[in-house]
Amino acid sequence: MTPFIAEIVGTFLLILLGCGVNANVSLKGTYGSSSGWIVITTGWAFAVYTGVVVAGPYSGAHMNPAVTIGLALAGEFSLFDVPNYILAQFIGAMLGAFVVWLIHKPHFDTTEDGDTKRAVFCNAPAINNLFSNILTEVVGTFVLVFAVLYFTDAVSTKDNTIIGLGSLGALPVAIIIWGIGLSLGGTTGYAINPARDLGPRIVHALLPIKDKGSNGWGYSWIPVVGPIFGAAVAAWLAMTLA
Question: Which pLDDT score is estimated for 158?
């Protein structure tokens, strides 16, 4: 499997299971309906675990443009490869979101609230506060990328050495994601990943979802800019402390 394909597949699995748990908890009539925040954060942790297991040996399992950019800024990843990785991540995220809709379509049809339907795909703030919302995404992504940069056992491939979430091992990175969700995620839904939020948001906009309401474009830049800035801060601090 090439790194490009691995990033598509890994991100697809991440969003399939991550947005899948959102759907199971949020939509009307599922067995997991209203099961709560612990289920969501645990589901996302397992989603990351699954993506890392599959993509890690081939691409490092970035599955996140902020991770890719942060590693490149820290000199741990080739700037030349950044566009290909980000493109693959968005393709995988959009495919994953589409399949989640396909599986849950009857539940989308019976759920009345448009904001609840959108929440399956992408994030929105619990309280709309520009500074707080951006800061949450910055700090959450900082924790993720800073942790990645402090794991030194990179994933070896035949041709070169690749660093990413796969460098941590699937279980440690799942625990980190779980911790970020439990401790920092309640204010914005902790996107900490531009592809995770913007890719499914685009799919939400394109799909013929019954009574879907707003796409939330006014908020959509925060889960993009915040994570990238947080990754840049993590890269700077890691290099400063080295």
Answer: 43
Assess contact for 139 and 155: CB atoms under 8 A.
Answer: no
- Which residue, 147, 161, 135, 162, is CA-closest to 226? 135
Compute the distance between CA of residue 173 and CA of residue 150 in angstroms, rounded to an integer: 12
Question: How many structural domains compose the chain?
Answer: 1
pTM, two decimal places: 0.93
Domain that holds residue 48: 3-241
State the Cα torsion 151-16-65-133 to the nearest 10°.
-100
Q: Which of 67-71, 128-132, 159-163, 178-182 has the lowest mean pLDDT?
A: 159-163
CA-CA-CA-CA dihedral for 70, 3, 155, 47, to nearest 10: 80
Beta bridge partners of 162: 155
Give the separation between CA 87 and CA 85, rounded to whole angstroms: 5
64: left (phi over 0), alpha (psi -120 to 50) or beta: beta
What is the C-alpha separation between 156 and 143, in angstroms, rounded? 24
Q: Residue 136: give its domain's CATH number.
A: 1.20.1080.10
